[in-house]
Write a structure and sequence with these properties.
The structure holds 2 protein chains of 2 kinds.
Chain A lengths: L4 E4 L3 H10 L3 E4 L5 H6 L7 E4 L9 E4 L2 E5 L4 H6 L1 H6 L1 H8 L4 H6 L2 H7 L6 H8 L2 E4 L3 E3 H4 E3 L2 E2 L7 E7 L4 E7 L6 E9 L4 E6 L7 E2 L1 H9 L3 H5 L16 H20 L1
Parallel strand pairs in A: 1-3, 2-3
Antiparallel strand pairs in A: 4-5, 5-10, 6-7, 6-10, 8-9, 11-12, 12-13, 13-14
Chain B lengths: L1 E7 L2 E7 L5 H8 L18 E4 L2 E4 L12 E3 L12 H8 L9 H14 L5 H7 L11 H13 L1
Parallel strand pairs in B: 1-5
Antiparallel strand pairs in B: 1-2, 3-4, 3-5
Helix pairs in contact in B: 2-5, 3-5
Classes of the chains: A alpha+beta, B alpha+beta.
The complex binds flavin-adenine dinucleotide and FE2/S2 (inorganic) cluster (FES) (2 copies).
Flavin-adenine dinucleotide binds next to strand 2, helix 2 and helix 7 of chain A.
């Protein structure tokens, strides 16, 4: 790895000050993406600002029909939280399906969404539940936050503080995990409340996570399995690599959508 | 350089390290605890698993400076003198290793799995071993060893 500087910070303000003072610095949370990337020399920040010890970022609480999760909360903590199991079971299942136990002990929800890997799981839950993302500067809806492949609306000197998920019991996430890494080859998150049906797809598009509007429309017209089966995802703009062709992934997204739908209705 | 002070297998150590030094290299090269292995460059094999503050982590994907002020247990810290830890004993009894390269990580992962799950079955053990690769055994006897150890712990 290249030589770099390192600073552990204790408060959000301190983290923001460091980012502002050091334009070539990067936030270090769980490090489960950043450190492997630096080992491969795909990233070479001059300074790492370690936020894992900021206590005000590590929490899970319920507030006016939302579950709010602090950005440095790790995947294990989310998957084992009794509150989340009770209120949004689909979210705890999603967290349990990330990588492996060792990765879940370090990797954080804030890191996962800031990174916006096109095959990551949490972005699908954020879009699929209509989450609100609080940063050190503002509040953003998930629909505004995820821009494209590894790209978010975050400014250089802005950090994710917490993510607020509306409590929607009727929700389910189903992914086909890559057998080696467990990242999604295709993953579909569906949620349904009185007013809204949302369908988010990860692992598939060349532009990262997206809302599948044709599927949302079809299900809004008629909440039935045939409404899911009738909508096909076009392979155009779908990723193609050694793990699977675009046709394969597009078809997989359909199958994951059917299973997610069945998951809600079970 | 940064000063790192931590407790490893019950011993307090303090060392100046380069910020870029990975925890696994700190453990192997600076502290000469070579039981912890490096098996890959992609954070996938789990040969490097140690416990930091009681949680199993991949020490190849963590910086030594991140572990400042923590308590670490490596494979060397499991046995009680001449007496093997129940998981080590079970791996020996059940032929849970062949070349032994993955074994330190497997055993550290296994201790963590058993600590977290009061009831264990084969399916859970196999799922929980997602982050540990073995090129020799085909996992059969590793799973058997962990199930046997869980009955004794
Ligand atoms: C073997 C392995 C398997 C994995 N499998 C999966 C999987 O199945 N599904 C999945 O979704 N993910 C998977 N991951 C990724 C894992 O979930 C990561 O933990 C996550 O993507 C990044 O979180 P982190 O806390 O480790 O972030 P870091 O690696 O510390 O940071 C990632 C990026 O986000 C930035 N960042 C971090 N926190 C913040 C913040 N609060 N505000 C602003 N920017 C921030 C950093 O600067 C960096 O650019 C896997 C990783 C590994 C190593
Ligand atoms: S050396 Fe392979 S996961 Fe750490
Ligand atoms: S015993 Fe040889 S790699 Fe597992």
């Amino acid at each position: 790895m290249y030589q770099f500087n390192y600073k552990k910070v204790e408060t959000i303000q301190e983290a923001v000050n460091e980012l502002t003072a050091n334009p070539d610095s990067k936030i270090l949370a769980g490090g489960m993406t950043l450190i492997p990337t630096m080992k491969q020399r795909l990233a070479s920040p001059e300074k790492l600002i370690d936020i894992r010890n900021i206590e005000e970022l590590n929490f899970i609480r319920e507030e006016s029909n939302n579950i709010i999760i602090g950005s440095t909360t790790n995947h294990f903590t989310v998957s084992s939280s009794d509150l989340i199991k009770e209120k949004i079971p689909s979210l705890s299942m999603l967290a349990e399906g990330i990588g492996d136990p060792h990765v879940r002990n370090m990797g954080t929800i804030g890191g996962a969404i800031s990174n916006n890997d096109p095959t990551a799981d949490y972005p699908a839950a954020c879009l699929g539940l209509g989450a609100k993302i609080k940063t050190s500067k503002r509040e953003l809806m998930a629909d505004e936050f995820f821009i494209s492949l590894f790209e978010t609306a975050l400014d250089e000197d802005e950090i994710v503080v917490s993510i607020s998920f509306p409590i929607i019991k009727d929700s389910f996430y189903m992914k086909f995990p890559n057998p080696a890494s467990r990242y999604a080859m295709a993953g579909v998150f569906i949620s349904k409340n009185e007013t809204d049906i949302r369908v988010a797809v990860t692992g598939a598009s060349e532009n990262g996570v997206f809302r599948w509007s044709e599927m949302e429309e079809s299900l809004s017209n008629n909440w039935s399995k045939s409404s899911v089966e009738n909508i096909k995802l076009s392979p155009e703009g779908i990723m193609s690599d050694i793990h699977g062709s675009s046709e394969y992934r597009a078809n997989l997204a359909n199958i994951m959508a059917i299973r997610a739908f069945e998951g809600i209705n079970e | 350089m940064s000063l790192v002070e931590l407790e490893i297998n019950g011993n307090k150590v303090s060392h100046d390290v380069e910020e870029r030094q990975l925890l696994v290299h700190f453990i192997r090269d600076d502290l000469s605890l070579t039981g912890t292995h490096v098996g890959c460059d992609t954070s996938q094999c789990g040969a490097c698993v140690v416990h930091v503050d009681g949680k199993a982590v991949k020490s190849c994907s963590m910086l030594a400076v991140q572990a400042n002020n923590s308590k670490i247990t490596t494979i060397e810290g499991l046995a009680d003198g001449e007496n093997l830890h129940p998981v080590q004993e079970a791996f020996r009894e059940n032929h849970g290793l062949q070349c032994g390269f993955c074994t330190p990580g497997m055993i550290m992962a296994a201790v963590d799995i058993i600590n977290r799950n009061s009831i264990l079955n084969e399916k859970t053990v196999r799922e929980e071993l997602e982050g540990n690769l073995c090129r020799c055994t085909g996992y059969q006897n590793i799973v058997k060893s962990i199930l046997a150890a869980s009955e004794k712990m």
